[in-house]
Amino acid sequence: MYIGTVIGALIGFFTLGPLGALFGGVAGHFFDKGRMKVAASFTPEARKAVEQAFFNTVFPLMGVIAKADGRVCEDEIGNTEQLIAAMRLNSEARTQAIRLFQSGSKGEQSVDAILDTFLVDCGQYRDLKQLLLVYLITLAYADGNLDQAEENILASIATRLGYSSFAFNHLLGMVKAQFHFDNRQRSGGGSRASSQSDLSTAYTALGVEPSVSDSELKRAYRKLMSEYHPDKLAGQGVPEHVIKVATEKSQEIQSAYEMIKKHRKSQS
Hints:
Blueprint: H1 3-16, H2 18-40, H3 44-68, H4 74-86, H5 91-105, H6 111-122, H7 126-140, H8 148-160, H9 165-186, H10 192-205, H11 214-227, H12 230-235, H13 240-267
Helix pairs in contact: 1-2, 3-5, 3-6, 3-7, 3-8, 7-8, 9-10, 9-13, 10-13, 11-13
């Protein structure tokens, strides 16, 4: 509860001495108060509202994207079924999820109308908005190909969620690389040529260039892991089933980082 106070005091002490410790401790104390206030704001009612908003948003949008290329493929249906299973829905909620997915695939709701409702309850939660976008990108790329119509819909969703075109394309490239990297690792890799390709994909999965320093690489890795950290997300009111998606992404990021570290060590 008081980690900000302790860290602030230590930083202040080692930089400015006892007086610095005093000021650092005070600054850390206000940080702790703000952090606890955010955690306290997620009452059971608020958490329930966030979970319901995500439920009512993700399934119709999954339907919209799945039908964007003209047909709903088996992988896209499989991803939807996996999410339903992860949420441990009862029969009534499962039926509702399927109905929402079908509604989206039939064009019964516009993307703007779906997101208008979502942003009322979740617009202030950056992590939840990003996880929603990441999951939708993953679904669209489930068949290994991102159709232009699917990308256009994802771009419009990203814009409504507050992403610039550059930020969306950067995130899109990272998620696609993570998808490819994860599939390559599960298949056991391949030749030396494919290993070099895997290494390039690993860098893209972390959102960095191969020329970055070790410290810059570590910083990028830690930032991504922080964004997908389950404890942090839980404290912000992110639903449990969304956290499971984030955990999968963090495992892909971890694998990519370990590959890069191993390669760099072998080259030193």
